[in-house]
Design a protein that fits this description.
Length: 426
């Protein structure tokens, strides 16, 4: 079993190249199911989740070609997805259980093939994330839905029909699923209370280049005028705002100075605002965002909310920052009810954290101390790596499969800017 070994104390300085966004890449890969022409995606990150979804698409009959080289080890690689022949409309449990985003094949398959059977999904155990909104949205477009033996069966033999989809609360995944499905529905679909995340706008941009007629992406109301067919396209995946925010915290914690190459400030403004409040100096440059330390970290308060507010995917990383800040910070998790599983692991490193319901009070300590810890989910794994960068002695992080789902070449990127970090086999 692989482990990450970090010896803390080094100041980080230099350039970190931000990879393509996992949360954007996964729905973009599913757009290939909507057309019989090739879809080429550039700037795809090398991540376990990308491989998992590639396996699922391949099972469905999608041919995948890698441009410019062999294997999946290339940074910023390009993949071409050819779904001209859909061999199967069943997404099996053995693949879907590994990643929740697998549910994103449901909408495109029903829209193009008139049917789909998808196993109920897995993924990080960070709380109750039901797919009810996905299913009700498809029903609003005329799909018949059945759940049996752990599978969702959706059918629309005569095609989907445009309608009004009103989400009771914001859901990124459900917005993405119904946005893709609506592109091939007959008539006009209006999506109300839609997610506004930059990944939604990136998906709409790709779909529009395929011939979809979409207005309002990035706002609470998206309108889609269905078309009979979509064409292939070439699209570059947007930079990963969560990865960029994570490395920004590393700069502040280590009293360093990092240029986050390719990062887009507008996509991560809420996180950058908190970094500035905590004592970080944030500068937007031509090729990215620079974050450097003013020498100390101040306490702060955050509440996670849908974009453009503070993102839940940055909560664990900012908790680590709060653990070494001057004074107390209060972090409230308003999205997922079980996303404080990293707290006991941070406390093993010497953090002073008290959880009361959905809020955590973090009292900064003078120093963290290296120890054996275990990653509990994707973003928690990065929070532990950040703690290891400043902890006294050696920190060993177990269960790296979580980390590999969302951070490309993490140890290599950290080493290039001065961290003492390595991956070892047990």
């Amino acid at each position: 079993m692989e482990k990450l070994v970090i010896t803390g104390g080094n100041r980080l300085e230099g350039t970190v190249e931000i990879s393509g966004a996992k949360n954007a890449a996964l729905p973009l890969m599913c757009t290939a199911l909507l057309t019989d022409e090739p879809v080429t995606l550039n700037n795809l990150p090398r991540l376990a989740d990308i491989t998992t979804l590639s396996d699922l698409l391949n099972h469905l009959g999608v041919a995948i070609a890698i441009a410019g080289g062999k294997g999946l080890m290339m940074r910023g690689r390009s993949l071409t997805f050819d779904a001209s022949h859909i061999a199967d409309t069943v997404a099996p449990y053995d693949i879907v259980r590994k990643m929740r985003a697998s549910i994103l094949v449901l909408g495109p398959l029903v829209a193009r093939m008139g049917e789909a059977t998808v196993s109920l999904p897995g993924g990080c155990a960070i709380g109750n994330r039901p797919i009810d909104l996905h299913l009700k949205a498809l029903e609003a477009l005329g799909a018949d839905i059945e759940i049996e033996d752990g599978y969702v069966r959706a059918s629309a033999p005569n095609g989907l029909v445009g309608g009004v989809v009103r989400f009771p609360f914001v859901s990124v995944g459900a917005t993405e699923n119904i946005l893709m499905a609506a592109t091939l529905a007959k008539g006009t679909t209006t999506i109300e209370n839609a997610a506004r995340e930059p990944e939604i706008a990136d998906l709409a941009l790709c779909l529009s280049s395929m011939g979809a007629r979409i207005t309002g992406a990035g706002t609470h109301t998206i309108t889609v005028e269905g078309v009979e067919e979509l064409s292939g396209t070439t699209h570059a995946v947007m930079p990963d705002r969560v990865e960029a925010g994570s490395y920004a915290i590393a700069a502040l914690m280590t009293k360093g100075n990092l240029l986050l190459k390719n990062a887009r400030a507008n996509d991560m403004q809420a996180a950058l605002d908190v970094l500035s409040e905590a004592g970080g100096i944030v500068e937007v440059e031509d090729d990215g965002v620079r974050v450097r330390s003013n020498g100390h970290v101040s306490g702060f308060n955050i509440v996670t909310q849908p974009f453009p507010a503070f993102p839940t995917d940055m909560q664990a990383q900012f908790m680590t920052l709060a653990a070494v800040a001057d004074g107390a910070s209060v972090i409230t998790e308003a999205i997922f009810e079980n996303r404080f599983m990293h707290v006991p692991e941070l406390c093993r490193l010497g953090a002073d954290i008290t959880v009361t319901g959905s809020s955590a009070t973090v009292r900064g300590v003078n120093a963290l101390r290296g120890a054996q810890v275990m990653a509990t989910d994707l973003r928690a794994s990065m929070s532990l790596a950040l703690a290891g960068l400043v902890a006294e002695g050696q920190t060993v992080i177990n269960r790296l499969y979580h980390l590999d789902r969302g951070y490309e070449h993490l140890e290599e990127k950290f080493r290039r800017v001065g961290a003492n970090i390595e991956r070892v086999n047990d």
